[in-house]
TrEMBL record:
Protein name: Uncharacterized protein
Highest taxon in the source lineage: Bacteria
Region called Disordered, residue ranges: 64-98
Organism per entry: Streptomyces spinosisporus
Amino acid sequence: METRQSDIPRAQGACDLVTVPARQGLEAVDILRRGPGEAVGPVLHDDDGETLGFVVPPGTAAAWDVPGSTCTETDGRGTSLHPEPPVEGSDWLLPPGEADLATDPAVLRAALGEAARIIKAADSCR
C-alpha cells in the first residue's frame, strides 16, 4: 500500500500509520481483538491484499523499530477518519467508528511480535 503523508487519516489531529505484511497484520488483529478491551484502532488493507496499515497516535514513527514493518509519520495534514478509505487502492478492514481511535503502539508492537512467532512456528511445521 503506497501512502502519501497527505493521504493518511487523522485520529484526533494527526496520526501515524504502521504498515505490515498482510499475514502478520491479520494475526496481530486477531491477537489484539482477543485481548482485554478494544485494543485495536482502525486498520486499512490494500486492494492487492499484501499489506495492512494500523492507525497509531502521532509521534509513533519517531521510535518505531519493529523489523518487517514501517511507520509513516504524518505532518498533521491528513484527512479526517471517514467511512471512505483515505488512500486510493485501499479499504478499511476495521473502519473508524468500529474501533478505537488509534492502536496503542506498545500493544501493537507486542501483538506483531507474537504474530511473527506464530507464523514462524506454523511455517516450520510444513
